[in-house]
Design a protein that fits this description.
The chain has 30 helices and 21 strands. By secondary structure, it is α/β, with parallel strands linked by helices. The longest helix has 81 residues. The protein starts with a helix and ends in a 20-residue tail after the last strand.
Length: 940
């Protein structure tokens, strides 16, 4: 793969200029460029080959011209030899002068025609000096005739013959040098044009010399030596000629006969010269000798005349072949060009048609016509493109159908609105129309301010715009106003829609109607924070009031020996007494800045904030104590007199190490021990004792952590549907040096203050995971606090141990409900990590104080554990029954399970089961123990 990528990269670099050019040309110009390139390449190759053929034709024409010139020169050679011999004989007295003059006229005519032949060739300029020399020697020979000097005449005529042979050599060099592959044929042709003229010249010279000697009847030694030299040269040239042209004449019997005739006549002539001249017989028959020499020359001319037509025919054949090849190539090039042009135009039209069809189908698809299909093509490449295109369109059609179905489902299930980038409404779906009462026509062109409630702050609006203009998604809850003026609540997700340039083109808001949920939440909140018996704010309200108060002052009141009243008069009378006492306390409040609470049973509280000074508060305490001790209350038909104990605390006078309610409770206990009915909390009464106790607790914690005596007791969680124990909750316990086991409420607060809480959580996680690994059929719960999540070391430790374990999917983390977990990104991130590892998330003590249904979905909560304070006496308290039933109903609607804690009796068990809970936990099922107890007694 790496080599392939490297190769592709190398190719890309090599062809970068071509890619750059082709990327900027249209398909037509690309095709035209390709056509021109191919035609140029085709014609360039053809031109080179045709040029090669033209060169060959021209060379053969030069050869043909050279053969013609040589033939004429050979004719001239014979005439010259005859002229030389006739003139020589005449000068020797053997003939009249008329014969040489006639021969000279023929010689001049031959020379003139040769001059014309040479002039028609390309080598005239090079041979012109040789022609001039030839003419000069002929004039010199003419002068010798006039002077009647035979020797001088014979000498110059021999120069003329040498000039003719030299001309023939130059013609051979310049025009008829052969380049045949057969070297023997080449040598034969060269011998023919080289040796045969020399043989003829030597034969003629021998004929003239011999005729002259025979005519005189004697010879001197010089002439004798010259005759011998001519005969030797003649024999050498004859032998070389015969050996060289043997293969050339082999296929032709006439040529063979001509060669044999030359050999035979030369031998005969040699014998005659040998006998008549060399041996000195001197038969004195010069004319006969001359005529015999003429016959010898005639055989040589016959051979030349026979071979020259054959050579000319061979040259013509080469020329015709080359010309035919040239014509064929020209025709082929023309035909190939026409065929290429025809195929190119057909290819262009076919591809253009397919491309146009592809563009047309693409435009149809872009216009939304997803039923369009591209027809199959006749070529493989576009057939693949058509198949892929149709597959893509089918996929788009399927996805578009799904999107339409999703849109319809979304329109039916959710509220959708769209605005442009300036916040102007462009669309609302029919579901939103039904909810808000407006139609799309009524809201189009207006802003979302049309729906805005007065409760929506400008700060929230600014945050929305800041978020979505930054191209981020906004999540939030809005209270909107319908057309009829009623309010409705929506949980909205606003998404910026971007174009291909990442610019915002519109905003889409996907909303869910949570009006009913908000109403339920408000109703539940009212139930949670109000006492059903007296209608007064309850304990939860007191906690909230204390958190929001500054320099708070608190007093707690309860009825002395209230349990005795219940025993004597019954619970109904006891309840009536509490109601009347609440009314009495309401009347006795001296200041509207005092708040009255009923904390449950016979306990009441009065809270004052910093607007009431300490002195006035103390006066109120004393006034209440005197007004209520004793107090007579009419309960049905009974008038009951009771005494009230009061514990008071002023926060500004204490160091705040204890909760305000705890300090007031201590003061209340002290009041019950003392003669007077009220008491103010003082740190002096328990500070030293408490410090000593805290130090002892820290020592126990340190010892337990170092020695690993932080253990877990496991309490079963019973599934009411399957009627079996499926889960266990790991509950922390501390074992001290003496082996005594301590519950968390005795050391947790001290551990948090001493920064040891994280170590305790880590021990619980280790113990529970170890037990879970040994019991693969069971699910285990682990309690964690927001402080654990905020502690990065503890958080990392939990994630690491889950990665190491094999039971993460069987672990439930119970997060104690508090206000700190809402809108806490750190908590959300940590819970998301747990979910990814397969763990489940439970909210513990739900309903104890801060109850918010919105974050249950945001946090991905799986299980809701209802707080035990709502379960205690639920079999008798109808308000608690309504609250718990409401919680279970809403939790089930949100797709979550419920666990009911503190199920301590059969009556409570039957009640919570009838209210619809999924799981129960409490001592009625089984108490927490170090050993797992899943074999529970059958519940009747």
């Amino acid at each position: 793969m790496k080599n392939s990528a490297t190769w592709s990269s190398t190719l890309g670099q090599i062809f970068t200029p071509a890619l750059w050019l082709m990327a900027r040309l249209s398909y037509f110009y690309k095709s035209a460029l390709l056509f021109v390139a191919v035609v140029i390449l085709l014609f360039a190759t053809g031109y080179l080959y045709i040029d090669h053929l033209d060169s060959g034709i021209e060379k053969n024409r030069q050869r043909l011209h050279g053969v013609n010139v040589n033939k004429a020169l050979f004719e001239l050679l014979f005439r010259t030899e005859r002229f030389r011999e006739q003139g020589y004989l005449c000068l020797q007295g053997g003939c009249t002068i008329k014969d040489p003059l006639l021969l000279r006229k023929l010689l001049e005519e031959g020379l003139s025609s040769i001059d014309e032949l040479i002039r028609s060739g390309a080598y005239h300029a090079a041979l012109e000096p040789m022609l001039e020399t030839l003419a000069v020697n002929i004039k010199k020979a003419d002068k010798a005739i006039i002077l009647k000097d035979s020797t001088y005449y014979f000498h110059h005529m021999s120069d003329v013959i040498d000039n003719i042979i030299a001309l023939m050599d130059q013609i051979n060099i310049r025009s008829i040098l052969w380049d045949e592959d057969d070297i023997e044929t080449v040598l034969g042709i060269q011998a023919l044009f080289d040796r045969l003229p020399r043989i003829s010249a030597l034969t003629g010279e021998l004929r003239g010399l011999g005729s002259g000697i025979l005519q005189e009847g004697s010879t001197d030694s010089v002439m004798y030596g010259h005759i011998v030299d001519v005969m030797g040269a003649l024999e050498i040239n004859r032998v070389e000629l015969v050996s060289r042209i043997e293969k050339l004449v082999e296929p032709e019997p006439k040529l063979q006969e001509a060669v044999e005739a030359i050999v035979s006549t030369l031998r005969t002539y040699d014998n005659w010269v040998e006998r008549e001249i060399i041996e000195g017989q001197m038969s004195r028959a010069p004319q006969l000798f001359f005529d015999q020499g003429t016959k010898v020359l005639a055989t040589q001319k016959t051979l030349f005349d026979l071979i020259v037509p054959r050579l000319k025919g061979e040259i013509h054949r080469h020329i015709d072949k080359a010309q035919h090849t040239k014509d064929l190539i020209m025709d082929t090039l023309l035909l190939a060009s026409m065929l290429w042009l025809y195929l190119f135009i057909g290819s262009y039209i076919a591809i253009r048609r397919s491309i146009d069809m592809l563009i047309e189908v693409t435009d149809e698809v872009a216009s939304g016509h997803l039923k369009t299909r591209m027809p199959e093509q006749d070529n493989e490449e576009f057939d693949h493109i058509a198949f892929s295109m149709n597959h893509m369109i089918t996929s788009l059609h399927t996805r578009n159908s799904l999107l339409k179905a999703y849109k319809n489902a979304l329109d039916e299930a959710t509220l959708v609105s769209k605005t442009d980038e300036k916040g102007v409404i462009t669309y609302i779906n029919t579901t939103y129309e039904r909810l808000c009462g407006y139609t799309l026509d009524e809201v189009a062109g207006k802003t979302n301010g049309l729906f805005r409630s007065s409760s929506t702050s400008e700060t929230q609006i600014n945050i929305v715009w800041k978020t979505i203009l930054a191209k981020k998604i906004y999540h939030g809850v809005f209270e909107n106003v319908a057309k009829d003026g009623s309010s409705f609540f929506v949980k909205s997700t606003i998404v910026p829609i971007l174009d291909e340039n990442e610019d915002i083109i519109e905003f889409m808001s996907i909303m869910s109607d949570i009006t009913v949920l908000v109403a339920h939440e408000k109703e539940l909140e009212e139930q949670l924070y109000s006492d059903s018996l007296t209608g007064l704010p309850n304990r939860l309200s007191l906690h909230e009031a204390i958190r929001s108060s500054k320099d708070a002052k608190l007093l707690l009141l309860d009825v002395d020996r209230f349990s005795m009243i219940n025993t004597i008069y019954g619970e109904d009378v006891g309840d009536e007494l509490i109601i009347e006492l609440g009314k009495k306390l309401t009347l006795l409040k001296s200041d509207s800045d005092l708040q009255l609470f009923h904390l449950g049973s016979d306990e009441f509280a009065v809270l004052a904030d910093g607007r009431i000074d300490d002195l006035h508060f103390q006066e109120d305490v004393v006034m209440l104590a005197h007004s209520l001790n004793p107090v007579r209350l009419q309960c049905f038909s009974h008038e009951i007199t009771v005494r009230i104990s009061i514990g008071a605390v002023i926060a500004s006078r204490n160091d705040g190490r204890r909760p305000l309610i705890a300090m007031a409770s201590i003061a209340l206990k002290e009041a019950k021990k003392r003669p007077r009915s009220y008491f103010y909390y003082s740190d002096i009464t328990d500070s030293s004792h408490q410090i000593e106790e805290n130090l002892a607790t820290v020592e126990r914690l340190d010892h337990a952590i170092k020695n690993g005596t932080i253990i877990c007791h496991y309490q079963p969680i019973y599934n009411v549907h399957t009627e079996r124990v499926e889960k266990f909750e790991g509950l922390m316990r501390l074992v001290d040096k003496e082996g005594k086991t301590h519950s968390p409420d005795t050391f947790i607060n001290v551990a948090k203050g001493a920064r040891l809480y994280g170590s305790l959580t880590q021990q619980v996680v280790l113990n529970t995971l170890a037990v879970a690994d040994l019991n693969p059929e069971m699910v285990f719960s682990i309690n964690i606090d927001v402080e654990d999540i905020n502690d990065t070391h503890t958080e990392a430790f939990i994630i690491d141990q889950l990665h190491r374990s094999t039971c993460a999917e069987r672990i439930i983390f119970e997060l104690v409900e508090s206000e700190q977990i809402d809108n806490n990104d750190l908590v959300k991130s940590f819970l998301a990590q747990l979910k990814r590892l397969g763990c489940k998330i439970a909210i513990d003590d739900f309903g104890s104080g801060y109850s918010n249904y919105a974050y249950l979905l945001e946090m991905g909560i799986d299980i809701v554990k209802i707080d035990g304070t709502l379960i205690t006496n639920i079999d008798k308290d109808r308000d608690k029954q309504r609250i718990v039933a409401s919680i279970i109903s809403i939790v089930h609607e949100l797709g979550m399970e419920t666990v009911t804690e503190f199920v301590n009796s059969l009556a409570i068990y039957e009640m919570v089961v009838s209210l619809g809970t999924d799981h129960v936990q409490g001592v009625y099922i089984a108490a927490a123990a170090q050993e797992l107890k899943s074999d529970i007694k059958e519940i009747e």
